[in-house]
Design goal:
Number of helices: 40
Largest sheet: 3 strands, antiparallel
Shape: globular
Number of strands: 5
Structural class: mainly alpha
């Protein structure tokens, strides 16, 4: 039998009381967790408090004199200590606010000790009731440093920044925990400058406070600031090194990440996994396997890290994951979910079959499995299928609800998103609010987006920037400027860039140029946005000057220039830029390859086109899209390679559309190939009985 986590086989904790077998049987007959036992030497009885989680019950059991032997040295102080420990355990056992309120009102003495008050504040804050936490705090007769810190954390945890700061300011003796907590509070809101100002004011700093500030920069993706702070630290530990390694990995700075990894005085499974995933993101799976082979221990954690790397970043994730999966000595839920993720990214039907058949045994699926499957359907726009999976889930968490809400929002189903958010969801977190804000933004409901934003209990940098983007995209220029100046994120580079990007998308070149000049600082995204604004407005010479002036050129900037030349029918410019991009070591993506193929098509360079098309899959492990196949069909047809073009239409991994055959028909007409024109026209008519094929075919023989 367990009382307060202690066994009652040999006696009651704090007392020398062997319990008789009859008493043990009577205690077990309560069939409820027992939280307190009071033994009195003057009376042959035991007072017992038990709880079923909803209410506290008290009963007294009469026992024979031989069943109890009280140690005469037991003191009132020991009894009081025992009662306090019982109360603490009871408070910490509460998992809902109603449970805690019931325990507080019925079982906790009033007034209570500082220790009990601190625990009450802590658990009230954890369960979301800062009002009741504050009432306990205000009624305390004496407070210690822990009292101030748990009250600060309660406000911080529930998004009340101003109250958290007020508690910090009122604290007569803030310690390391106080300073670190308030720094973390500001950084979690994206207010890094305020967090840094507080950090710089700290009278003393320890390794925990340094790591807190380091993690704050890393979380927001500030690579330079993270590196600078790391090098200024008087002492680093494994956590410090791993934070820097992670931010470099997330920024895809593999070379720098490798230098940090090799310089680490010690490594653990976390740092090794970060490095493994960093190489996987770049497709360096030879290095991934080397890192795995060099691990001191190949336990289930390391095997799962390798499996997850292939699932997320593998060139042929399903095949590669199967190879790893069936080599593993054993599997757990992480393993099964990694395989499901690999299936979901490749073949949704196969993913559903794997989920239904292979993951049907106990211990092979959990809530995460259901969320992976639902998110996969939602990602591919299959909202009804995602909803069906959601309806079959045995239990849902916040991730499940947010995934369903995201499925509606991302696929333009605003009414269903509103119904789910306002009527069905049991609770909202910051992600829920942001998804709903996006739903209004994507549908152009500017006013409703602003109303929702004003109701948000915790406004993050993401939500602030999203509303800025809504204003700018809807051409609410005055509101965007005003909001930019008044928002808490006015000094955020991301906020300025968000408005600039909206102007660029709307081809508001003058507004974009004015804002770009006003920006206090500019990063690669800002430069690329103003470059795109000029490129899409046909300002080729100005775009070229901006491109040449950019301090750093990334793939997006090169792709903007490629698209500009392609849209302005400049195949030579496309091909020249393609060669320069490869010389500079920039690896092209699908969009860049589409522009290259377009340039080859309009330039009539069949050899370069074939080379680029095959290079996509062989050298860069990219899967050609429909537009890529369309460019190749057009290129082959223009060059007179009609049979090759027809073969490509018939063998490509996408169903042929009428446009593909009409494109070929046009090529046949240009070289007056009546036989192939008839074949192309026949296939086009099967798909669409419109008049265009007949007209082109008639022109072939005219």
């Amino acid at each position: 039998m367990t009382v307060l986590g202690m066994r009652l086989e040999h006696g009651c904790p704090g007392h020398d009381v062997p319990l008789g077998h009859s008493l043990k049987r009577r205690l077990r007959s309560l069939e409820m967790p027992i939280y307190g036992i009071s033994l009195e030497k003057d009376r042959p009885r035991v007072d017992i408090w038990a709880s079923d989680g909803a209410e506290m019950r008290h009963c007294s059991l009469q026992v024979g004199a031989l069943a109890i032997r009280i140690n005469p040295q037991t003191t009132k102080k020991n009894a009081a200590m025992l009662q306090e420990q019982q109360c603490i355990a009871l408070i910490k056992s509460c998992t809902t606010l109603s449970q805690l309120q019931g325990v507080h009102s019925s079982s906790i003495p009033d007034p209570c000790s500082t220790i009990l008050s601190n625990v009450l504040i802590q658990i009230y804050g954890r369960l979301g009731s800062v009002e009741q936490a504050r009432r306990v705090f205000d009624t305390m007769h004496s407070r210690d440093s822990f009292s101030w810190n748990v009250m600060l954390v309660a406000y911080s945890r529930n998004g009340h920044l101003e109250y958290a700061k007020a508690v910090f300011d009122a604290n007569p003796r803030p310690d390391f925990v106080s300073w670190t907590s308030i720094v973390s509070t500001y950084s979690s809101r994206g207010m890094l400058q305020d967090a840094r100002n507080l950090f710089d004011k700290m009278p003393q700093r320890n390794l925990v406070s340094w790591n807190a500030m380091l993690a704050a920069y890393a979380k927001e993706g500030h690579v330079t600031e993270t590196k600078n702070l790391f090098h200024n630290m008087p002492l680093q530990n494994l956590i410090s090194w791993t934070i820097v390694l992670s931010v470099l990995s997330q920024a895809l700075l593999l070379e720098e990440a490798e230098k940090i990894y090799l310089a680490m005085p010690e490594r653990d499974a976390v740092s090794t996994t970060v490095m493994l995933e960093a190489n996987a993101q770049h497709g360096h799976f030879g290095k991934v396997n080397t890192i795995f082979d060099d691990m001191a221990i190949h336990d289930l954690v390391s095997w799962n890290a390798l499996l997850s790397a292939y699932a997320k970043y593998g060139s042929n994730p399903l095949h590669q994951c199967k190879e790893v999966f069936y080599k593993m000595p054993c599997w757990n839920l992480v393993s099964w979910n990694a395989m499901l993720l690999a299936f979901a990214g490749t073949d949704l039907k196969a993913a559903k079959n794997w989920f239904d058949n292979e993951m049907s045994e106990p211990g092979t699926r959990d809530l995460i499995s259901w969320n992976i499957l639902m998110s996969a359907f939602a990602k591919h726009g299959l909202v009804d299928e995602a909803s069906e999976v959601f309806s079959q889930m045995p239990v849902c968490d916040q991730v499940s609800w947010n995934s369903l809400l995201s499925a509606f929002a991302q696929n333009g189903r605003l009414p269903e998103a509103k119904q789910a958010f306002h009527e069905k969801m049991p609770a909202w977190d910051s992600i829920s609010w942001t998804i709903m804000l996006y739903a209004y933004a994507a549908s152009g409901n500017v006013e409703e987006a602003k109303v929702l934003f004003d109701k948000m209990p915790l406004k993050s940098l993401i939500s602030t920037n999203l509303l800025l983007f809504v204003y700018a995209q809807a051409r609410y220029d005055e509101q965007a400027r005003k909001f930019l100046d008044e928002s808490a994120a006015e000094h955020s580079l991301a906020s300025w860039t968000m408005v600039l990007s909206a102007y660029a998308l709307n081809s508001q070149l003058r507004d974009a140029q004015d804002l770009f000049e006003r920006m206090p600082e500019k990063d690669t995204v800002a430069w690329t946005s103003i470059l795109a604004a000029n490129a899409t407005s046909g300002q080729m010479h100005r775009a070229k000057r901006l491109f040449d002036a950019m301090p750093e050129l990334d793939l997006v900037a090169w792709t903007v220039m490629l698209e500009m030349h392609a849209q302005n029918s400049d195949p030579e410019g496309v091909l020249d830029l393609s060669r320069q991009m490869l010389i500079h070591g920039i690896l092209p993506d699908n969009t860049a390859f589409t522009c290259m193929l377009f340039g080859c098509s309009h330039g009539g360079d069949v050899a370069a086109g074939r080379s680029s098309f095959h290079s996509m899959a062989i050298d860069f492990h990219l899967e050609g899209g429909r537009r890529d196949y369309g460019c190749m069909i057009d290129l082959l047809g223009r060059a007179g390679h009609l049979e090759d073009a027809i073969d490509l239409v018939e063998t490509m991994p996408y169903p042929a559309r009428v446009d593909d055959w009409i494109c070929l028909l046009g090529s046949c007409r240009r070289i007056r190939d009546a036989r192939r024109a008839t074949r192309a026209a026949s296939r086009a008519v099967e798909l669409d009985r419109a008049a265009a094929p007949y007209i082109l075919l008639a022109n072939t023989f005219s």
